[in-house]
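Researcher: I'm preparing a figure for a lab meeting and need a structural model of a single chain. I don't have an experimental structure, so a prediction will have to do for now. The sequence is pasted below. Please return the structure as C-alpha cells so I can convert it later.
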Amino acid sequence: MSFIDRILPRRNRAEGYPGKGLRRRPAPLRIAVVDRDKCRGTGDCEAICHYRRIRVGGDGKARIAKGCMGCGACAGICPSGAISMKWTVPTRGGTSGDA
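Model: Understood. Here is the structure written out cell by cell.
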C-alpha cells in the first residue's frame, strides 16, 4: 500500500476535481484548433509541438491529433495565424468536451 493510499481514502481523493485524479494528468482546459483555409503548411507548428500532436499532411495543411495539451506554442509561432486556442469544459471522469 502506497503512502497516498494510506492517508487519502480512494473515494474522496479526486472529489470535485475536473481532472482524472492525483495519479493521472488532468484534462486540458484548452486545445488547439486549425483554420484550414488560412493554413499555409509551413510546418513551424509541427516543429515546435512539445507533445508531437500536430502533423502537416500530404495536402499541405496542419492537423491536430487527439491528445493536444493546450500549451499554445503552436498558436504563438504560426505565421499565418491559422491556429487558435479553444477553451474546453472539463467533465467528470477527466475527459474534456467542447465549450
